[in-house]
Design a protein that fits this description.
Layout (H helix, E strand, L loop, with lengths): L3 H7 L1 H7 L1 H13 L2 H9 L5 E6 L2 H17 L2 E6 H6 L1 H4 L6 E6 L6 H13 L3 E6 L5 H5 L2 E4 L12 H18 L2 H31 L4 E6 L4 H15 L2 E6 L15 E6 L5 H13 L3 E6 L4 H5 L3 E4 L10 H4 L1 H13 L18
Parallel strand pairs: 1-2, 1-3, 3-4, 4-5, 6-7, 6-8, 8-9, 9-10
Helix pairs in contact: 3-10, 3-11, 5-10, 5-12, 10-11, 11-16, 12-16
The chain binds 1-O-phosphono-beta-D-fructopyranose.
Length: about 350
């Protein structure tokens, strides 16, 4: 019988996960030297509020990008699914002269995303910046300006390195707007600093999923990591058809923890400012029988004492620069769990690469 390892070697999605650092290097290098970067900086110089929009994985990317924008640029930024723009514009779009919308779509063809870009620009006269991995897309036609990442080359249905590459490019843009050259240089070095860890993480997730079986998955995060927890839960659901949820870490105590048992896999994203409160939760979840996985930049005794598996980035970078690397264990968990269940992450059930509506 074909082993999981053989199937893994044949998985296009896993290969795209494992080669993400190459896509990061190429995407940042292309963007850094592009005329579009200068044009965006010039044309958005007066913007004081930012609205990031997307669907599915691209909405969770919008959440991570909005948190990055606020922390890096000091400007107010928020994220919405495209459907909120289309159906509840009175709730979500107050007249604001200096609002900049950023509409994110790997395919550049998702109907809701393209329609939202058109509505923002044409009906609400809001400046729109598209972010996509596809050339000559309907999104590009609908937006004032568009960042097109031509180096991602993602064939899989589920988004992995397109998520991290577009996030890093948006973080790079935020750094440029702030004049934070040191931060931008940090992002450019991230790929080289993370490559070895990524391969080690892959082997460890493979072993972890082979050794254990779970009935449900919980991803817990707060602050800038919340969008990463949402995306990790989606990756596990898309690639392994498992029941997967995500919550604000401390909110999990207020009811949802009722679900925890020995077949519950709880993944905590540990933040710098929330670390003490998050570590208290780890111990509680171990107490009630959950299996605890940690994603953090630097572990401590409390973390290692209360967890079954620790993914430590060990990066000497600002916390916000660890968002892209922090999603990787969740991508790997989804892929290897799917393979173990005899599924094909390259052809996830019920899913298509793009959601097109009539
Ligand atoms: C958004 C999306 C993906 C999902 C699937 C269908 O695509 O919903 O998040 O995984 O691939 O499309 P896009 O708008 O970023 O192209």
């Amino acid at each position: 019988m074909e082993t999981t390892r053989n199937k893994a070697q044949e998985s296009a999605t896993l290969q795209e996960i494992l080669t993400q650092p190459q896509a990061w290097k190429a995407s940042l290098s292309d963007f850094k030297g592009s005329h579009m970067l200068q044009t965006i900086l010039e044309q958005t110089s007066s913007r004081t509020e930012w609205l990031f929009v997307g669907c599915g994985t691209s909405f969770y990317l919008a959440e991570a990008a909005a948190a990055s924008w606020t922390i890096l640029s000091g400007q107010r930024a928020r994220a919405l699914p495209a459907s909120e723009i289309l159906l509840f514009s009175d709730l979500n779009l107050q007249p604001h002269r200096e609002l900049q919308a950023v509409v994110i779509s790997r395919s550049g063809s998702t109907s809701e995303a393209v329609r939202a870009a058109s509505l923002l620009r044409r009906k609400h006269n809001i400046a729109t910046l598209g972010v996509t991995c596809s050339p000559n897309s309907p999104l590009e036609s609908a937006c004032d300006l568009t960042i097109q990442l031509s180096s991602v080359h993602e064939k899989s249905i589920v988004m992995t390195r397109s998520f991290t590459s577009m996030l890093l490019v948006l973080q790079y843009l935020a750094g440029c707007k702030k004049g934070a050259e040191g931060f931008c240089a940090t992002l450019e070095k991230l790929a080289g600093s993370f490559e070895a860890s990524l391969l080690s993480f892959s082997d460890r997730v493979n072993s972890f999923t082979n050794d254990r079986t779970f009935v449900d998955y919980i991803f817990l995060a707060q602050g800038p990591f919340l969008g990463i927890a949402h995306e990790a839960a989606l990756k596990v659901t898309e690639m392994s058809r498992s029941f997967s949820q995500s919550y604000h870490t401390l909110e999990f105590r207020h009811g949802p923890k009722a679900i925890v048992g020995p077949e519950t896999c709880l993944t905590f994203f540990i933040s710098e400012s929330g670390q003490n409160a998050e570590c208290e939760m780890l111990a509680e979840m171990k107490e009630i029988g959950g299996v605890v996985v940690i994603v953090c930049n630097r572990a401590n005794k409390k973390i290692t004492a209360s967890s079954d598996l620790v993914f430590e980035m060990g990066l000497d970078v600002p916390q916000i620069a660890t968002l892209a690397t922090s999603i990787v264990p969740g991508q790997l968990l989804g892929c290897y769990t799917g393979l173990k269940k005899g599924l094909n992450p390259d052809a996830p059930k019920n899913l298509s690469r793009v959601v097109l509506l009539d």
